[in-house]
Specification:
two-stranded antiparallel sheet, 2 domains, 16% strand, alpha+beta, rod-shaped
């Protein structure tokens, strides 16, 4: 009798872990972005950042306005 209870408890736990694992896997895949964004490199400091966050001037990417200004003044 006691052996049957332990067996049933183990089966219930296995089913619970399987269901929980599938839900966790589904949540992880939902967090991934739909598209991978291009990364660019700041011409002044070399830091890599997403293209949408960069500042572009004369076809060159920068991480901030300060680096853009320093680069443009050094070209003059």
């Amino acid at each position: 009798m006691f052996g049957k209870l332990i067996f049933i408890a183990i089966i219930v736990l296995l089913i619970y872990w399987i269901i929980r694992g599938k839900q966790a896997k589904k949540e992880k895949t939902e967090l991934l972005p739909d598209e991978i964004e291009n990364m660019v490199c700041c011409k002044h400091c070399g830091m890599h950042l997403p293209e949408s966050e960069s500042i572009t001037a004369q076809g060159v990417s920068f991480c901030c306005n300060d680096h853009q200004q320093k680069y443009l003044h050094s070209k003059q």
